[in-house]
Design brief:
alpha+beta; FAD/NAD(P)-binding domain; Elongation Factor Tu (Ef-tu), domain 3; 2 domains; six-stranded mixed beta sheet; 19 strands; globular
């Protein structure tokens, strides 16, 4: 199985989907290689789009012809314009989305492009000809040739998951990591480093006493992300927004969390990577703000057809027993059940400054000749 494309995109996350559609829309023949046909632009960390700074980026992508804003609008469960109490320059759109529907809506967009093919597999090897990349080989032995390759692997390159002292290989919990690509690029002179991020536990909302929790509703007249005239899923007659709920930690919760610090991979040195942005775990909040008696949390829905809720603000890599004991000490969560624990993930990335340094050095030497 061998075919020639203009561009191959490896990885079907948010960046990969946008890259594939951008190239296909401009007329290039594109192959998108992804390990999960049901997880396009999968909302691993948070089932929401936007927020401070990120909301502006999504609207800029929309203005440039991208699809993130459109897919978000089609998948919205709740819309809020943050920072309304401040000036318009500080306003920031944020949409709570249906996690499953978001991926399905992206799949519809991708499959509607006549210039775009999709192949469900893991890319395991780059192909080179005279030191120039010319394609990829997949885990099933398929070979695809191309003039360029875009790598958007997210957290999957040599991904490792952490829950206390327990470690697993994976890009997301329950999903395999990707190996081989990093080693190839390092052999060819590129520099790599490790990055980390974390995610909170997923909560069964049927086990939560929501009568104890303040409700956070969406805007009464919700806006949308895209500048196109298509209404969002929560606009128009009969549209309904799903509520979020507000919770707070307390001193007892903090005491329980601190009891597990000696097993936290963030503090024991098991994790060496740095975060892509400042999105602190709950244990990091306690370390940085030791005198704060409480931290605000949010319970956010992951979809209309599921009891799964996301506990915003409670990212952690502490041992599972510590997580459960701390959750049970939060008002409203005394009898809570979880679908999945919080965990941290560490993965390979290529710093663009370090990646381009050897390239620029070669260009300079060529010019000197």
């Amino acid at each position: 199985m061998e075919r020639m494309y203009d561009i191959i995109v490896v990885g079907g996350g948010h960046a990969g989907c946008e890259a594939a559609m951008a190239a296909a829309t401009l007329g290039s023949s594109v192959l998108l290689v992804t390990m999960d046909m049901l997880g396009f632009a999968k909302m691993s960390c948070n089932p929401a789009v936007g927020g401070i700074a990120k909301g502006q980026i999504v609207r800029e992508i929309d203005a440039l012809g991208g699809w993130s804003g459109i897919v978000t609008d089609r998948s919205t469960l709740q819309f809020r314009m943050l920072n309304r109490s401040k000036g318009p320059a500080m306003w920031s759109p944020r949409a709570q989305c249906d996690k499953i529907q978001f991926s399905l809506n992206w799949r519809k967009v991708l499959e509607s492009s006549c210039n775009l093919d999709i192949y469900a597999d893991s890319a395991t090897e780059f192909l080179f000809e005279n030191s120039k990349i010319c394609g990829v080989k997949t885990n099933t032995g398929a070979i695809f040739m191309s003039r360029a390759v875009v790598l958007t692997a997210g957290t999957f390159l040599s991904g490792k998951l952490f829950i206390g002292r327990h470690q697993m290989e994976g890009g997301r919990i329950g999903e395999l990591a990707s190996y081989g690509l990093t080693e190839q690029l390092v052999e060819r002179g590129l520099s790599t480093d490790r990055m980390k991020t974390g995610t909170p536990p997923r909560i069964d909302i049927s086990s939560v006493d929501v009568s104890k929790l303040p409700v956070q509703l969406g805007d009464p007249d919700p806006a949308r992300f895209s500048f196109l005239p298509e209404p969002s899923a929560v606009q128009g007659l009969g549209a309904e927004q799903m509520p979020c709920f507000i919770l707070h930690t307390n001193e007892r919760v903090h005491e329980i969390l601190r009891s597990g610090f000696d097993e936290s991979p963030l503090f024991t040195g098991l994790i060496h990577g740095r975060g892509p942005r400042y999105c602190p775990s709950i244990e990091d909040k306690l370390r940085v703000f030791p005198d704060n008696p409480a931290h605000q949390l949010f319970l956010e829905p992951e979809g209309r057809s599921t009891n799964e809720y996301y506990l915003q603000g409670f990212s952690s890599s502490l041992p599972l027993p510590v997580q459960l004991d701390a959750l049970h000490a939060i008002a409203g969560l005394e009898e809570v059940k979880i679908f999945r624990p919080a965990y941290a993930v560490e993965y390979d990335f290529f710093d663009r400054a370090r990646v381009w340094s050897p390239v620029l050095s070669r260009i300079s030497s060529w010019r000197a000749r």
